[in-house]
Design brief:
It contains nine helices and 14 strands. The protein is α+β, with helices and mostly antiparallel strands.
Length: 348
């Protein structure tokens, strides 16, 4: 391995050991390539992470090695990187790192962090999200083009319910994310309720292409609106994060004109720096906005009152939530119901 190198970021020096360690064998990208990428897109990645509790997705030996998610701030973290104390649905809590400068991103890259997973909150108020995050997830039989169709219709839904502006980005895989900056007035439960309302409205408009069904057996070949990505402790890869796939794709912020024109393969560790140098962060003004969820929450109330559409299941590791339907796979529920019926028809 080559000797360690030092990188400068806004007056801060970060030491990078083993800079020639191969992180992406298919492309030959090294740890130094990763760190230099994050330096090149520094203002963009910092805009996405600034003051947010952030989970690190680490691959210390590169994409071919073992990996893990690190929620708790590492013990060896420099004292110039602040933290926030957050509570998990399990009742446990932790201090998570909250990047406030690009050097913090480089420090995490030194320890093999490929992807950054920020919470939708800031460290001064960790219980009230300031982003509504909508995840358009292609299911088997669908692809990115299907997510594009759903995203454009979702844009109209957001405009009609509160004149909300969504900021689209590639997931780094086959899907699309649409983030809406919001005023930090609502709880995680309320923001999730707004996401469900938006998803159901999109589903009504595109019934053959979109679903909010939590159970995979019910989704079919459709785009799934993963509303549970707005639940507490669920996070989405940040803009500009490198994803752990062989070709080193990145989650790329897009303009709406680019949604459908560009494809995920256009954006990777090698191509994004040139794009950033030319265009800068196309979501740079995102923090200038703080929209209201009132119209979507009113839609949620109407769905429940007029159509009996209440809450939807939480992920399995969450405690049972008030108003949540039974967290039982539909096919299993039917089987159990049949067994109960049969057992109750004894002969006389």
């Amino acid at each position: 391995m080559a000797d360690a190198v030092e990188l400068e970021a806004a007056g801060r020096t970060v030491r990078l050991s083993s800079p020639d360690r191969i992180f992406f064998p298919e492309r030959g990208f090294t740890k130094l390539d990763l760190a230099q990428y994050y330096l090149a897109v520094g203002p963009g990645i910092l805009r996405a992470l600034r003051n947010r509790p952030t989970t690190l997705e680490r691959y210390p030996e590169g994409v071919g090695g073992e990996s893990f998610f690190q929620k708790r701030a590492p013990k060896n973290m420099p004292d110039w990187i602040p933290t926030a104390h957050i509570a998990f649905p399990s009742g446990r809590s932790a201090d998570e790192m909250c990047p406030t400068e690009v050097a913090a991103v480089l420090w995490a890259a030194q320890f093999g962090t490929l992807t950054f997973h920020p919470w939708p909150v800031r460290r001064d108020d960790v219980d009230r999200p300031d982003e509504l995050r909508l995840d358009l997830d292609p299911q088997p039989g669908t692809d990115y083009a299907d997510a594009v169709h759903a995203a454009h219709e979702l844009r109209e839904v957001l405009h009609e319910y509160g004149d909300l502006r969504g900021f689209p980005k590639t997931s780094g895989g086959r899907g699309l994310h649409v983030f809406v900056p919001i005023s930090p007035r609502w709880t995680f439960t309320q923001v999730r309720r707004a996401a469900i309302a938006a998803g159901r409205e999109l589903e009504r408009r595109m019934p053959d292409r979109v679903t909010t069904a939590w159970w995979k057996e019910e989704r079919g070949e459709k785009i799934f609106v993963d509303y549970n990505q707005t639940a507490r402790d669920r996070t989405i890869a940040s803009a500009y994060s490198v994803r752990p796939r062989p070709h080193a794709p990145v989650s790329a912020p897009l303009t709406w004109d680019e949604v459908g024109e560009a494809v995920p393969r256009d954006f990777d560790l090698a191509t994004m720096p040139a794009r950033f140098a030319e265009l800068g962060d196309v979501h740079a003004d995102m923090d200038d906005h703080a929209y209201s969820l009132e119209a979507l929450l009113e839609l949620a109330d109407r769905d429940e009152h007029d159509h009996g559409l209440g809450d939807l299941p939480y992920p399995p590791e969450y405690p049972k939530m008030p108003g949540e339907p039974k967290r039982v796979q539909p096919s299993r529920a039917r089987k159990d119901s049949g067994t109960a019926t049969n057992s109750g028809t004894a002969t006389t």
